[in-house]
From TrEMBL, chain A:
Molecular function GO terms recorded: ABC-type polyamine transporter activity; ATP binding; ATP hydrolysis activity
Taxonomy of the source species: Bacteria, Pseudomonadati, Pseudomonadota, Alphaproteobacteria, Hyphomicrobiales
The protein's name in its UniProt record: Spermidine/putrescine import ATP-binding protein PotA
Uppermost EC category: translocase
Record InterPro entries: AAA+_ATPase, ABC_SmlMolc_Importer, ABC_transporter-like_ATP-bd, ABC_transporter-like_CS, Mo/tungstate-bd_C_term_dom, P-loop_NTPase, PotA-like, Transp-assoc_OB_typ2
Organism expressing this protein natively: Bradyrhizobium hipponense
Enzyme Commission designation: 7.6.2.11
One biological process term in Gene Ontology: putrescine transport
Positions of transmembrane segments: none
TrEMBL record, chain B:
Protein name: ABC transporter permease subunit
Organism: Bradyrhizobium hipponense
Classification via PANTHER family: INNER MEMBRANE ABC TRANSPORTER PERMEASE PROTEIN YDCU-RELATED-RELATED, PUTRESCINE TRANSPORT SYSTEM PERMEASE PROTEIN POTH
Membrane-related topology note: Multi-pass membrane protein
SUPFAM superfamilies: MetI-like
Domain ABC transmembrane type-1, residue spans: 86-292
Subcellular location: Cell membrane
Principal place of residence: membrane
GO CC terms: plasma membrane
Protein family membership: Belongs to the binding-protein-dependent transport system permease family. CysTW subfamily.
InterPro entries (UniProt xref): MetI-like (IPR000515), MetI-like_sf (IPR035906)
GO BP terms: transmembrane transport
Superkingdom assignment: Bacteria
Gene3D superfamilies reported in the protein's UniProt record: MetI-like
Automatic annotation (TrEMBL), chain C:
The keyword Cell membrane appears for this protein: yes
Matching InterPro entries: Bact_Polyamine_Transport, MetI-like, MetI-like_sf
Residues covered by the ABC transmembrane type-1 domain: 64-256
Signal sequence, renumbered to the chain: none
Coiled coil: none
PANTHER family, alphabetized: PUTRESCINE TRANSPORT SYSTEM PERMEASE PROTEIN POTI
Entry's Gene Ontology cellular component terms: plasma membrane
Segments crossing the lipid bilayer: 12-34, 70-89, 101-127, 133-156, 177-197, 235-256
Family label: Belongs to the binding-protein-dependent transport system permease family. CysTW subfamily.
CDD domains attached to this UniProt entry: TM_PBP2
Alphabetic keyword roster: Cell membrane, Membrane, Transmembrane, Transmembrane helix, Transport
Full protein name: ABC transporter permease subunit
Protein's cellular compartments: Cell membrane
Lineage: Bacteria, Pseudomonadati, Pseudomonadota, Alphaproteobacteria, Hyphomicrobiales
Amino acid sequence: MAEELRKMEAAAGVADVATHPAPDQPLLRIEGVAKTFGTFRAVDGVSLDIRAGEFFALLGPSGCGKTTLLRMLAGFEAPDEGRILLGGKDIAHALPHERPINMMFQSYALFPHLSVRDNIAFGPKRAGMGRADIDTRVAEMMALVKLEGLEKRKPDQLSGGQRQRVALARALARRPQLLLLDEPLAALDKKLRESTQGELMELQRRLGTTFIIVTHDQEEAMTMASRIGVMNAGKLAQVASPRELYEAPRSRWIAEFVGDVNLFDGEFKLRDGHRLVIATRDAGTLVVAEPREPTDGTRLSVAIRPEKVKLSRLGPVSEAGHETAINRLDGMVADICYLGGSTVYKVKLDTGGIVQASVANSARLDADAYSLNQHVVAWFTPDDCVVLPP
Amino acid sequence: MSARRIFARPARFAAIAPYVWMVLLFLVPFAFVLKISLSQTAIAQPPYEPVFDLTAGRASLEAAFAALSIDNFKLLVSDDLYVYAYVRSLTVAVTATALLLLIGYPIAYGMARLPTRWQAVAMVLVIVPFWTSFLIRIYAWINILQHDGLLNRILLALHLVSQPVVWLSTDSAMYIGIVYSYLPFMILPLYATLAKMEPALEEAASDLGAPPRQVFWLVTFPLSLPGVGAGVLLCFIPIVGEFVIPDLLAGSNSLMIGQTLWLEFFTNKDWPVASAAAIVLLVVLLVPLLLYERLQRRQLEQGR
Amino acid sequence: MRKRSRLSHFNIASLALGLGFLYLPILILVIYSFNASRLVTVWGGWSLRWYHEFFGDRAMIEAAWMSLKVAASSASIATLLGTLAAVALSRGERFGGRTLFSGMLYAPLVMPEVITGLSLLLLFVALNAERGFWTVTIAHTTLTMCFVAVVVQSRLGSLDRSLEEAAMDLGCDPVRAFVAVTLPLIAPAIIAGWMLAFTLSLDDLVIASFTTGPGSATLPIRIYSEVRLGVKPEINAICTLVIGLIAIVIVIASLASKLSSAQGESAAPL
């Protein structure tokens, strides 16, 4: 197996075109991988396929196991259970230097005693590339991350943004089949982070390299990744596109972790075509669009995103014949939070609950803005609601 | 005015007492060593001709300067005994420091790789022998190395030798003694740099395709050089002037400079020559001393 | 987060061999101090004979008493001066002669003892000072205060400066801020410094040989002259007692530092 790995490594490091598996086969297949530290199960049976050329994000709160999973892909941890297949071959127990996978470290881990050039040349040199090839590769990488002219600098003579680029160039210099990025933007300030996100996406599209990024920042994951795997307590809670993750979260936990949400616990009452009628504990009776009938019992939760809750003084005009088509909740403005682009109102409902509504500030001078203790109607359509298990 | 500067003023007052103490008891004595190294030997108590008598005015001062002689230094340069002692001191110090580095590095490296909880334990274990008396540690080795000592008994029992080996009064015994006594001084600075090193650096090297051996030589070792420097200086400088270990463990046919100095001073009562020997030793060690001083200052003041 | 086991067999072997090398000779010495036989290498059964012999040896007892007095007094003076020096160096910012000051403090750490001893002796002779307890104490103070300074300075350097600033913000003047906040926090280092100074003084042969006078030999001077004459089991007993004393000092000091600081400052950074 070591022999095959060496070949793979050589192919990834030296050949100009990285070898990709057959199109029907995922580049990376993680099968039932688990890792336990003492009694703590950091990664608990994760299975996941990643296709070649994907930009995949592992998203989760700190301690959820996403970094451990990434470190197992890089080879810094060996899984206790399961397999990790890269191009069909199990690499779960291969050592880090035997894998055609490179990693960009959260701390960048640039070698402080080596120049920028030597940092970038470190990987190609280990792959046995000739001097001339290495020079070409370094020049190419410097151009790729727009750092030409800084070859001779030492890492401590660079700015944070420049260091981040060197780390990226170094990790890409061996043309890995898979690039792992561990919180790559965490050390940058907000403005730089946003522009770097764009550059990373552009780079990934151009190179076609498969990227797996670990982040705790949902906005970052949603901006960059084509697919997101949300991790919680060592398990993959949901793998979906950013839109699906936000609009159709699979559980209460995901709905609350990704973005803001209003959640109302209640009981399923009856079905009306594609709609369910749910009696909630503190927001009255709600009608939601849901083709499936709840399978396990009658208890469930209704989730509605704040920007989908509209406010008005009088409430919407009911459509004729569709008395239940729109959910309307009466209440009083209890709190106003002005955020610039939008304003979040907390409305205390007459039925006891609180609903948050996020209203876009579409006009500079808003004479219609609601004031504290004003009576308002919060309303939303059944299609904007998601039914979740309690 | 910043809070730090408000703090600095009373802090500077704290310097007065130790400053005066060190000037009087560390700096000024060197002037005496220099002065006596330039005076003539006399059979008296104290055994040298006083050269200065500041109470006698300028004329006597001039006379005193005229009486200064560099005879003692000439003696040191011309007499093979002294030249040989300096050469031997440096050879012993270089060899012993190399041995210490060779033995100490793997230990420090092992310590730095222990789980954090065990690192503290290992550090205490390395420090504790240092707290037990230095003379005791040498004495312990005399116990082991003597003619019918433990080492020979073990070697005989294992049939590795047919007759007891003479260990005491040899260079091997001296090197064992030096390595044993100075090992903590080599290990601790090495350990300090290795433990501070970010583990991600070694991981990055192996991630970029370096097998373990290359990871060590390309990343770990170069980054531990400050620790190597500190350890080497911390051992090399005092070993050059070492007296007790060669005196008790090495043979008496070739002496180190610390021993000759001791001999001149206590046995021959030739204070001026002993002083001159000390001055030469100090000059030999000046560069490493300055290097050490710089390193120490940088290390202790980097947090500021 | 824990890593893939970074400890190789080579690491474990070098640790085990290294620690064995450090401890075996001391262990053997302690065991043989309880040997009934006069021959150091022949095991004649357990006995306290050599301890009796030591306690009957008036000259040794006097030397031990002298050493303890010198160690206790020089360590105390050195701790005071060394702490002051450390405060000046780590909190005094820039001041005139700072480089000379730090140079004078760091040089004795590595300076061959023969040089330090000889130069101090020449000073005492020039001052016509009567050599004995006080000259040895002063000489030891000069050496050990440097060690105290380094130990305390490294603790001060790692201390969060905003603690002092917070104390001043809450109405302390700098001196009171130091006494109320800094001093308790560096107390473990000061204790460690005192211990280090104490054991260094108890240990020193060379400087004491130069600076002491007739009739006031310290324990190492006595041991040294006995050892030169050959191995004597009584020395094993004395050495074991010294090791025991130092062990007690270490245990007390580490307990004290545990009590006074929850940060787990290890016994000594040196």
